[in-house]
Amino acid sequence: MSREPEEEGRLLLLLVVLGTVGSQQSKQVHDSGLESETYPADCEDVFDMGVETSGVYVIYPAGSSSAVPVYCDMTTDDGKWTVIQKRVNGTLGFFRGWVDYKLGFGRADGEYWLGLQNIYQLTLRKKYELRVELGDWDNNVTYAKYADFSLSPKAINPEEDGYTLYIEGFSDGGAGDSLSYHNGMKFSTYDSDRDHYPQNCASLSSGGFWYRGCHLANLNGPYLGGVHLSYGSGIIWTQWRGPYYSLKTTEMKIRRV
User: Fold this and answer.
1) Would you state the torsion angle of the CA atoms of residues 235, 172, 140, 104, taken in this order, to the nearest 10 degrees?
2) 3-state DSSP: the chain helix, strand, coil percent, rounded to 5?
């Protein structure tokens, strides 16, 4: 009987330890050493937690069960950008089907697509702007901005609605406007044709995008090396380098406004 207080003490210590471990597991640990029990929805939340260095961080677009790594741009135009698409070297194939484009693919420390469902969740509750950054094979860089960006903002079921693109408020950073042509279009892939063209634009363009009939922008097209002879092939932003030039780098990034 004399051991009961000691055993109770050990049991209490064990519960404290388990509680501490559980608490630690619920924390998000960044490369910067930051720990927090909160669940940042986007890179602005990451910034507000004290992170000012660009890099890969975990965000939670739809709450604690939706963890996904993204690249956060904390420097460009005052930072806080959540990168939703990135092309840098052609190591990742973007000619993929509906499920991949819905859920996302690639690596946040390289080339990737965040996923239509994640992007939808991000833009569902708050207003976001979009910045499209482009680079060519002569190391020229430019951009276009859109003051309002969202996917299927009024849809009960965004997938049924095709994750329809909504943008407005274009401002020119030198790239010109190649995306407004796609405004109001559903997202199309080779196995889910939702464009306005008699043939499948995703198959013809070897990508996945909000094709109309077919495109002025094809940021998820095949990675080619600049000038080529095939109209509209490659990574295209028509208003900058035209339909016969495949870009070297692209980034689509969003930030709260």
Assistant:
1) -40
2) 25, 30, 50
Q: Is the dihedral of CA 199, 187, 140, 106 positive or negative?
A: negative
The parts of the chain modelled with pLDDT lower than 70 are 1-37
- Read off the pLDDT of residues 52-82 as tens digits, 9 standing for 90 and up: 999 999 999 998 989 999 999 999 999 999 9
Q: Is there a contact between 245 and 224 (Cβ–Cβ < 8 Å)?
A: no
Phi, psi of 135 (to 5 degrees): -135, 140
Give the number of other Cβ atoms within 10 Å of residue 215's Cβ: 29
Q: Whole-angstrom Cα distance, residue 255 to residue 83?
A: 9
Its pTM stands at: 0.85
- pLDDT score, position 14: 33
Distances in Å between the alpha carbon of 22 and those of 15, 17, 41? Answer: 10, 9, 21
What pLDDT digit, counting tens, does each position of 177-199 carry? 999 999 999 999 999 999 999 99
| Residue 184 in tokens | 């109001």
Strand (E) or helix (H) holding 191:
none
For every residue of 178-246, which 3-state class applies, written as one string? Answer: CCHHHCCCCCEECCECCCCCCCCHHHHHCCCECCCCCCCEECCCCCCCEECCCCCCCCEEHHHHCCCEE
Q: What's the pLDDT score for residue 7?
A: 43
Question: How many other CB atoms are found less than 10 A from the CB of residue 102?
Answer: 20
pLDDT value, residue 38: 83
CB count within 10 Å of CB 3 equals 8
Do 104 and 113 touch, CB atoms closer than 8 A? yes
Helix (H, G, I), strand (E, B) or coil at 157: coil
- Tokens matching residue 47: 């910034």
Residue 69, SS3? strand
